[in-house]
Specification:
single chain; alpha/beta; Dihydrofolate Reductase, subunit A; 9-stranded mixed β-sheet; globular
Length: 339
């Protein structure tokens, strides 16, 4: 027998419908489990068909069940009622799965996000000699579909960008066979005006600006005239989670590599959107009193009554995936973010 697997990229409406159906199924599971437990306490052993006959009346109690196919509801019943005397242990095993099912459905609509940075031994991201060739050679590991870069990175490029010419207004040619990544830049303030220059660079096949509802209208028109795609999400600032969902659904982006400094990294980490942290540690000590790290965010409040060394509440825990010594005594570390 030959089996095939095909990826699907549901739009936001379909994602919402999936989440609603799963929520209804979870409610039914817990409701039937309650009935089974109560019956067991009374010395009554319910069979599958007994709980099956409860579903029509439960539809009156929870109308959302009417939106779910009957066969699906029957399968929920089978998973709940078929374990008989083992109801207690089975329920304990399944509890964590069913309480987190919606979160997992939402997460599957998000691309995998990797932070990739180089730091000195004392944790700075600047002020030390860095092998750029080595740094960018490693990015092929992830086969990224999109590069998410901070706007500050490209504001610095404004000084080297040539003036616009008529080519900036020509629609780009889309090649389905082009495997290069998409360049994505959050820019709710509308400051990046060098898209014409970025389009001439050989690293990306397509370009997307992330904007918010507060982005100036003249900037949105500027993007439209230059055929730069735009995702508008969030009120005053870009809603990064929704933006990632849109990248997944619109462009089939499954892997995002973040090429940025500490501010964008910090936003992604604090919002729980990062899956992997990749760090190159260079054998250099920079020192200094200014803050320059791969993770910039407001300080976490100390846990009340915390013992020394316990850490602040909200600290992000990592799991070491790989260590490798590279040329120049550079250490390459990869960590998975613990969920």
């Amino acid at each position: 027998m030959i089996s095939y697997k095909y990826p699907i990229f549901p739009n936001k409406i379909t994602q919402w419908m999936l989440a609603e159906n799963l929520d209804a199924c979870r409610w039914l599971y817990n409701r039937l489990l309650q009935d089974l437990n109560e019956a067991k306490e009374k010395g009554i052993k319910l069979k599958t068909y007994d709980t099956q006959n409860l579903i029509p009346s439960l539809k009156l109690e929870n109308p959302k069940l009417n939106q779910v196919y009957s066969k699906v509801l029957q399968m929920v019943n089978y998973s709940d009622a078929s374990f008989g005397d083992d109801v207690g242990s089975r329920a304990l095993q399944d509890a964590a799965v069913h309480t987190s099912i919606n979160k997992r459905v939402v997460d599957i609509m998000l691309p995998r996000v990797i932070l990739h940075n180089a730091v000195s031994l004392d944790g700075r991201i600047d002020g030390f000699p860095m092998d750029l060739q080595q740094y960018y050679e490693l990015i092929s590991i992830w086969k990224e579909d999109a590069t998410l870069a901070g706007s500050h990175t490209f504001l610095k490029a404004a000084s080297v960008a040539p003036p616009e010419d008529e080519s900036a207004f020509v629609p780009p040619k889309m090649d389905p066979g082009d495997k290069r990544a998409i360049l994505v830049i959050p820019d709710s303030r509308g400051r990046i005006r060098t898209w014409h220059y970025l389009r001439t660079l050989p690293y990306w096949r397509h370009f997307v600006a992330l904007c918010s509802k507060s982005t100036p209208g003249d900037y949105l028109e500027y993007l439209k005239q230059r055929h730069i795609d735009c995702i508008i999400t969030g009120e005053d600032h870009v809603d990064l989670r929704t933006a990632l969902e849109e990248l997944y659904s619109r462009y089939a982006v499954k892997v995002v590599r973040v090429d940025s400094g500490g501010t964008l990294n910090g936003l992604l980490l604090r919002q729980g959107l990062v899956n992997e942290v990749s760090v190159l540690i260079y054998p250099s000590l920079v020192g200094g009193e200014t803050t320059s790290s791969i993770f910039r965010a407001p300080d976490l409040p100390a846990a009340a009554g915390a013992a020394p060394g316990q850490g602040a509440e909200g600290t992000i825990s990592l799991k070491l995936m790989k260590t490798e010594k590279l040329r120049g005594d550079v250490m390459f570390l990869r960590y998975e973010v613990r969920r």
